[in-house]
């Protein structure tokens, strides 16, 4: 990949700027300094950034001539690294809480992962073909200004995942020190380390993710080797219910579907000549294989915690980190080293999530595009660390409250994006006009997208089953909110978008 493709020259999108000031934005054009000294200082700073691995481009569309990377397997490795860590184990541990035994947990995990992973894997294939980041693609359905609504929801979702990841990492580091290091300090360490990777951007992120999953995989093999004999001591459960199956399925969907809102962020520099079906398989494998295996391991751990006193004590003191620390006790001091490695494996997930978060900040308010992407790495870190420290006080309650709604809105969002591309753009990648990406007059009005997503919740809400609310339909069926959100939004978007195009011509 060329340096220019990552740094974005000052001339990008200057053409026709005088004719349409909405259209072109150069991210280096942030308030020009007036004094000679400040100009020289700014020039030196920009030269230093250009010589560094820091990505400056941000959300600006990537021209065809700069989509030259042939590291197609990076689409597998980035998903693999984002999933070969403690986060899927954490989600899997929620399975027994729905009254499911290990076999049923494993089947639910397998089915819902196979189903929902197709959404992010598919949307990621649009990145090389369009050169557009994921939420910039959303402008071609929602319009320039209305897209701020799903972007705000996405920012909340991504920030929530960063918080969960920081908390789990902090718990692991605290468990290693046996309380000598507070969870708050562990959270700060994880957050700062992730900041360095997300600050640099696309190239550094992909290089890190290409190899970081290897020590993570070795670490999990050691964990299973040390504590695997206790996994068969599962706590007996009552008969499985349909409600329990569907509610746990919602948990899996809440983990997997939000990846679709950032999928293309990781593929915009890839050469578009690579077959989309092969790229899809890379992404699908990177999402499904590690998620299924580690969520199932998490379900096994969650079902055995109560029957193993050492694990239960670790869970009470440091939640996920404490349980893994207890599993590694037979390895002695080496086990503590492995737990440190496992805590650092979370960097692959949180750094990639932070990277996409920085891009979403630039899209939230169109004028923020002039603020360099890397600045928002600092902003999101400053937000995540204190929120994580607060959330750590009652982690699993915070986790369940967070995942309660993210599957619903993200399913509606994905339904709109896929319907727009497949039905209204007929799968034509050239219909995403780069000159229109930042021009409200050339983008859709967004009325159809907002209306279809909002109206779908009239049926989604009765289908929700949460600790704080159970809808009348969900009382019988269990939680089917994300399925309903996807289907109803799709059915509403078809006629509403047709009317919008007929009325506005765009």
From TrEMBL:
Topological category with respect to the lipid bilayer: Multi-pass membrane protein
Biased composition (Polar residues): 1-19
GO cellular component, one term: plasma membrane
Stored Pfam families: Transp_cyt_pur
Subcellular location(s) per record: Membrane
The keyword Transmembrane appears for this protein: yes
Top-level division of the source organism's lineage: Eukaryota
Chain intervals for the UniProt region annotation (Disordered): 1-28
Keyword annotations: Membrane, Transmembrane, Transmembrane helix, Transport
TM region positions: 72-94, 106-127, 147-168, 180-199, 211-229, 241-261, 281-301, 368-389, 401-424, 445-468, 480-496
One GO MF term attached to the UniProt entry: transmembrane transporter activity
Family of the protein in this entry: Belongs to the purine-cytosine permease (2.A.39) family.
Name of the protein in its database record: Putative purine-cytosine permease fcy22 protein
Species in which this protein is naturally found: Eutypa lata (strain UCR-EL1)
């Amino acid at each position: 990949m060329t340096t220019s493709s990552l740094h974005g020259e000052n001339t990008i999108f200057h053409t026709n700027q005088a004719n349409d000031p909405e259209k072109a934005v150069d991210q280096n054009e942030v308030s020009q300094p007036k004094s000679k000294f400040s100009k020289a200082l700014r020039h030196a700073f920009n030269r230093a950034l250009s010589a560094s691995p820091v990505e400056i481009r941000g959300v600006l569309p990537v021209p065809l001539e700069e989509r030259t990377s042939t590291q197609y397997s990076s689409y597998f490795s980035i998903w693999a690294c984002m999933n070969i860590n403690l986060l899927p184990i954490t989600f899997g541990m929620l399975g027994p809480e729905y009254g499911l035994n290990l076999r049923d947990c494993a089947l639910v995990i397998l089915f819902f992962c196979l189903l929902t992973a197709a959404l992010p894997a598919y949307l990621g294939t649009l990145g090389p073909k369009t050169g557009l980041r994921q939420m910039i693609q959303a402008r071609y359905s929602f319009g320039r200004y209305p897209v701020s609504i799903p972007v705000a929801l996405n920012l909340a979702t991504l920030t929530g995942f960063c918080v969960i990841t920081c908390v789990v990492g902090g718990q692991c580091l605290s468990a290693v020190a046996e309380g000598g290091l507070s969870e708050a300090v562990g959270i700060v360490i994880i957050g700062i380390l992730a900041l360095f990777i997300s600050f640099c951007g696309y190239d550094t992120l992909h290089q890190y993710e290409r190899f970081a999953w290897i020590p993570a995989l070795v670490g999990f093999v050691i964990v299973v080797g040390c504590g695997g004999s206790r996994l068969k001591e599962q706590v007996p459960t009552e008969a499985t219910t349909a409600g329990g199956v569907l509610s746990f399925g919602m948990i899996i969907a809440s983990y997997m579907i939000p990846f679709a809102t950032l999928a293309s962020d990781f593929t915009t520099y890839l050469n578009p000549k690579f077959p989309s079906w092969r790229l899809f398989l890379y992404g699908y494998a990177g999402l499904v294989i590690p998620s299924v295996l580690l969520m199932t391991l998490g379900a096994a751990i969650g079902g055995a915690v109560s029957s193993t006193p050492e694990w239960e004590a670790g869970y009470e003191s440091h939640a996920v980190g404490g349980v893994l620390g207890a599993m590694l006790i037979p390895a002695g001091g080496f086990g503590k080293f492995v737990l440190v490695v496992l805590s650092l494996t979370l960097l692959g997930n949180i750094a990639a999530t932070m990277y996409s978060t920085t891009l979403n900040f630039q899209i939230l308010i169109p004028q923020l595009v002039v603020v360099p992407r890397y600045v928002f790495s600092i902003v999101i870190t400053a937000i995540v660390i204190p929120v994580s420290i607060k959330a750590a006080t009652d982690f699993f309650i915070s986790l369940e409250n967070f995942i309660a709604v993210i599957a619903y809105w993200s399913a509606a969002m994905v339904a709109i994006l896929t319907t727009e591309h497949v039905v209204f753009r007929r799968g034509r990648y050239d219909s995403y006009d780069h000159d229109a990406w930042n021009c409200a007059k050339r983008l859709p009005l967004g009325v159809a997208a907002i209306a279809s997503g909002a109206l779908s919740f009239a049926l989604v809400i009765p289908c929700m089953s949460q600790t704080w609310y159970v809808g009348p339909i969900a009382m019988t069926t269990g939680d089917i909110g994300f399925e309903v959100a996807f289907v109803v939004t799709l059915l509403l978007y078809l006629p509403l978008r047709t009317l919008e195009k007929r009325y506005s011509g765009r």
